[in-house]
Write a structure and sequence with these properties.
two-stranded antiparallel ribbon; Rossmann fold; DNA-binding; alpha/beta; homodimer; 9 strands; 18% strand; 209 residues; Arc Repressor Mutant, subunit A; 2 domains; 7-stranded mixed β-sheet
Chain lengths: 209, 209
DNA sequence: GAGAATTTGTGAATAATTTCGCAAATTCAG
DNA sequence: CTGAATTTGCGAAATTATTCACAAATTCTC
């Protein structure tokens, strides 16, 4: 790859991918950038430009064969195999994630769950045993897990994230409100704090009154 | 407001706001765009430009008085009063959100929880009674709630979202993987699907191997 | 089979965002 | 009190992202 694909383009691919999967589930075989764009509130040109970064997947006059485009996106997003995921923090949110059945069908297997609380360690969530966070590094290394979802209390977030890096984790989905300070070439971070997202909305909602 | 503030600027304000709150909690009184930027991995110039959209909050040579800047951001983000929130869907994620204690201190009160399941309707989550989703419109109208968090199964997402619009909801934080199609001037949408976020990361993680 | 209608991929134009660079204000060191 | 060091806010420049517009390929209509 000579010039890296812009991150903003990459961020749209999962949305295309999931929409195409829904279309396929509804029995549709082909689509066009126009149709996809209308469904997503994005311009057709943008979808074509985005996809053109990776190759030529469509056909003039016809559009895109959904199954083919799904396969291409699957490869591009490295979703042609499944990924193991660790959940750090078995509080309310961590538990909900560990219980959620929407990950596995999309190729994400919750493999490890950690917490600090002696009341939780050793108990089960579904068929997952909650592990002691002190064992984080050896357990993650042993399991070879590369992705972690961080659902610990804010105060612990940075320290736990530092441990995750030492354990060889390569991607952290951060649900805390603490912005993490980590070496950028080593770990891929995504901040998904619900409070920030609500505040982003209140900016606009307040304005309309 | 003549030219609207770019959304990308607005999206960064909650991060500044929360970081400043943390600094204040740690006893700090002033900061600079340089310090804030280093903490967040953002350039100092960008922070200054972002803030300059709303006014002049700093002082040359000194930087920013944290308490003052927090107050300003609180007003800008309309967080100078608290907001009531409805959670739609009392499955794993909905339950976790309803139980989560991180919202109230930041001014978001979970006021209503809805579900379809007769097994859940009438039962309690903490001191919140789960309501029948058939009562969505009258309950939300009566309570005057403006913000909803959507945690229903994918298949129901669009239909429920349409109801929310009819009920007068002005902001939806969408945790489903369904991209919602809603009138853009009426509702402010934020898509926060964990699967998409993981796929955004797998793009990069796969590349490094 | 001919002409109209679709639709892609892409170069060029436009628009949006970020970074640069610096005058002005302020603080700090001695 | 003086000179060095900070730091802001902002115009200008550079960079990045989106939209436009159209040739080329294909399908559709009759």
């Amino acid at each position: 790859m000579q010039t890296p694909i812009p991150d903003i383009v990459v961020s749209r691919l999962p949305v295309y991918f999931q929409t195409l999967q829904t279309m396929q589930a509804e029995g549709q075989h082909t689509t066009s950038s126009k149709e996809l764009g209308e469904k997503l509130g994005i311009s057709a040109a943008q979808i074509r430009k985005d996809l053109s970064q990776f190759g030529e997947f469509g056909k003039q006059g016809t559009g895109y064969i959904i199954s083919f485009l799904i396969d291409q996106l699957k490869t591009i997003l490295n979703m042609d195999h499944s990924w193991d995921v660790a959940v750090i923090g078995a509080g309310n949110l961590g538990k909900a994630i560990a219980h959620y059945h929407g990950f596995a069908p999309q190729g994400f297997n919750i493999k490890l769950v950690f917490d600090t609380s002696p009341d939780l360690i050793g108990t089960n969530i579904g068929d997952l045993n909650i592990l002691d966070i002190d064992e984080l590094i050896p357990c993650i290394k042993k399991a070879g897990v590369k992705i972690a979802m961080l659902t610990v209390p804010d105060a612990a977030a940075q320290a736990v994230a530092d441990e995750l890096v030492k354990a060889g984790i390569e991607g952290i989905l951060n649900y805390t409100s603490t912005p993490l300070n980590l070496p950028p070439r080593v770990v891929h971070l995504r901040h998904s704090d619900p409070v920030s997202q609500l505040q982003h909305m209140t900016y606009y909602i307040g304005k309309s009154k």
